Amino acid sequence: MPDPLDSPLVPPALRDALHLAPDNAPLLLHVAETVLRSGGFAEAEALFKRVLALDARNAAAKLGLAAAFFQQGKHGAAHVIVEDMVKGDEPLPRALLLHARLALHAGEPRLAARQYARAREADAKLADPALEKELGAHLPKRPAPQLPKSLPPTTAPAPEEPPLFGQTESDDATRQRLPAGDLPADLSGAEPERPTTTFADVGGMEPVKEEVRMKIILPLQQPDLFKAYGKKIGGGILMYGPPGCGKTYLARATAGEVNAGFLSVGISDVLDMWIGQSEKNLHSLFEQARSHRPCVLFFDEVDALGANRSDMLKSGGRQIINQFLSELDGVATSNEGVLVLAATNAPWHLDPAFRRPGRFDRILFVPPPDQAARASILRLLLKGKPVAEIDFDALAKKTEGFSGADLKAVIDVAVEAKLREAMRAGSLQPLAGRDLLDAVKRHKPTVSDWFQTAKNHALYANQSGLYDDILAYMKISK
Ligand SMILES: Nc1ncnc2c1ncn2[C@@H]1O[C@H](COP(=O)(O)OP(=O)(O)OP(=O)(O)O)[C@@H](O)[C@H]1O
Ligand SMILES: [Mg+2]
């Protein structure tokens, strides 16, 4: 098959942007979704696979791939993906909707109706009169207020196979809608969260904790001391590293540690603000943080903001980056009790302008936990659960290369197995070391893919030794 990027369905501005940043997963995802919406199902399939090669856990890409399969009649392949996605506690509403369609095709109308009802409940915009008609009597009897009342059920033209990502949009390269992010575009009214976790709940990560203490907590608590030594206050900390190693967790705990509010802003929110025409929103977000000080303002997955630069340049969106940077500068100069933290898996995509003094001038590598940290994370994660005597050090030894999130998954697996056992036996047994070791054997650690990519950047694009920590961690000498 020819390169899917050569498809005429790819808007030229996006194609150019991708040539400049071929590994930009959010951008690729956006292109894939655009192509899917325009009906290029085979091309979309190839593009979603590329996104997943860069970011295997990307839920929007998984769903997109499933949708592309579905549209091509590859129902089995679509089913495998979607079934996995709807397992958790809070499945994506769109995954439920696709599951409903697949179930209907597979001759399981009752399952289809159940999943459709869940999807509609979670997101009223997903209501689909045509599908409802097909599901008919299987649907639970309850009014669906979100359906347009004026729609006469028999004469309404059945919509074409509805696009799986909302309404069809024209391919307007200057107004790109980015995927995922069900958050409101206008965050100015968001109340900061008040986290209760503190550094005591975070296992290991001592160097990061120390840096956060020194660089942003102490200046907040003892500004005079810092002034006395003529030490400049301000600037944020950017954490980078493989997924699941505690970046977001630590940011939240920082707020708990100083009893501050916590405002977390995802990249999709920032981009939505841009798309939603108003840089105003971005400003009011910073204002929001200032009016609730002390407040931790946390930018998650900040890389995509820098990475979309070339794409944004074309669409006049450079403004948002500039404004973002000047808001950061504002925080730095007035030091109004706003602590700025950011996290990313892909620091190499970040615009270098972000790294100037007073912005994210401290860049910290957050590696997977070492043995001692793993033991303490396991202890923390098992707190309050019924456990027998457990040799945490032995367990930590057996989990080399596991991230915090991996350890959490191990415990989930062990707990599940124990519950099943308890139901069979009719009595609850405490979790023992044995159970956890069994679970360890069944879980594959998730960070190795990240290190493959990181290694290339550290070896071949390591400006001023920025990624020396990665090489040191991987025991590679330059
Ligand atoms: N050091 C730690 N101490 C305690 N729990 C941890 C630690 N690291 C990770 N965890 C657990 O793993 C989960 C995932 O971690 P977190 O979301 O902070 O990772 P992340 O580094 O932000 O990953 P990503 O790059 O994918 O966003 C946390 O919610 C927490 O339960
Ligand atoms: Mg995170």
Question: What's this entry about, in short?
Answer:
The chain is mostly helical. It has helices at 12-20, 25-37, 41-54, 59-71, 75-85, 93-105, 109-122, 129-135, 206-221, 223-228, 247-257, 267-275, 280-291, 303-307, 309-314, 318-334, 371-382, 392-397, 404-425, 433-442, 448-460, 468-473, and strands at 237-240, 261-266, 295-300, 338-344, 362-365. Residues 247-248, 300, 343 line the site of magnesium ion (MG).
CATH topology of the largest domain: Rossmann fold
Going across the biggest sheet, name each strand in turn. Answer: 2-3-4-1-5
- For the record, the count of structural domains works out to 3
CATH class of the largest domain: Alpha Beta
Number of strands: 5
Query: What is the radius of gyration computed over CA atoms, rounded to a whole number of angstroms?
Result: 24 Å
Order of helices and strands: HHHHHHHHHHEHEHHEHHHEEHHHHHH
| Weakly predicted, low-confidence segments | 143-188, 307-316
Biggest beta sheet summary: 5 strands, parallel
Question: How much is the average pLDDT?
Answer: 80
Give the termini separation: 39 Å
Task: Provide the structure class.
Answer: mainly alpha
Helix coverage percent of residues? 40-55%
Overall outline: globular
Question: Which tags fit this structure?
Answer:
Rossmann fold; mainly alpha; 22 helices; five-stranded parallel β-sheet; single chain; binds magnesium ion; binds adenosine-5'-triphosphate; Helicase, Ruva Protein, domain 3; Serine Threonine Protein Phosphatase 5, Tetratricopeptide repeat
